[in-house]
TrEMBL record:
<feature type="signal peptide">
    <location>
        <begin position="1"/>
        <end position="27"/>
    </location>
</feature>
<protein>
    <submittedName>
        <fullName>Glutaminyl-peptide cyclotransferase</fullName>
    </submittedName>
</protein>
<dbReference type="InterPro" id="IPR011044">
    <property type="entry name" value="Quino_amine_DH_bsu"/>
</dbReference>
<dbReference type="InterPro" id="IPR015943">
    <property type="entry name" value="WD40/YVTN_repeat-like_dom_sf"/>
</dbReference>
<dbReference type="GO" id="GO:0016603">
    <property type="term" value="F:glutaminyl-peptide cyclotransferase activity"/>
</dbReference>
<keyword id="KW-0732">Signal</keyword>
<dbReference type="Pfam" id="PF05096">
    <property type="entry name" value="Glu_cyclase_2"/>
</dbReference>
<dbReference type="InterPro" id="IPR007788">
    <property type="entry name" value="QCT"/>
</dbReference>
Amino acid sequence: MPTICHKTVSMLLCCLAGLVLCACATARVKEYKAVAVKEYHHDPKAYTQGLFFHDGQLYESTGTYGGSTFRKVDLETGKPVEEIKFAGKYFIEGSSILDGKLYLLTWTTKVAFIYDAATLKYQSTYSYPRQGWGLTTDGESLIASDGSATLYFMDGSFSVKKRLTVRMNGRPMRLLNELEYIDGKIWANVYTTDLILVIDPESGNVEATVDAAGLLPSRLHGPDTDVLNGIAYDGQSGKIYLTGKNWPRLYEISLVSK
């Protein structure tokens, strides 16, 4: 039996690793179209920054200086049933609930807020070193975006435990914004576009895209209608909802392969 030298073994292992990396980089990204199943009213003055369900209740954080809020929302009417308003210097961004606490990011003031999730009573303010954009949770960590291609996995005191670079076909994907954790994947909308990325939380690879172009028909566009930004998953019903900044509608959607 011939002897294989260590150098040859190393070369074979390197080649094998290269083939694996190549296969991963060229894996086909699935493409879906978001199709409206049902529509609901949405506050056209709500500059949506964060959108999520918790225990069957819809919550929304809205931005703009002087108009930032966090609210419990009635799904059927789109009206807030309970609301927190913020001082004019704060531009509220992403929001999420983890372990009984509500977490809220701000855009440029480098602070984050914590409230009691049940009572919506203020608890504390934390220093936050980055711009706040999107926020979600996998049930163990808070996951945040800052407009770059990086996602930050944090504990309840906003200490970063892991950084993940999001790539599609090997290329970093910038402008990651509103986030939602759905069935073990991170959904992220790409700011200023109608594109949503479905991301593997371990590798950072984009496994699928969701095209939401035309979801809000042009007849419903007004002077203040802005971009897609709002992804919510109701774990109790398994339904997914999308809306946008100052959109007059919120949509339950289904996915159709392109």
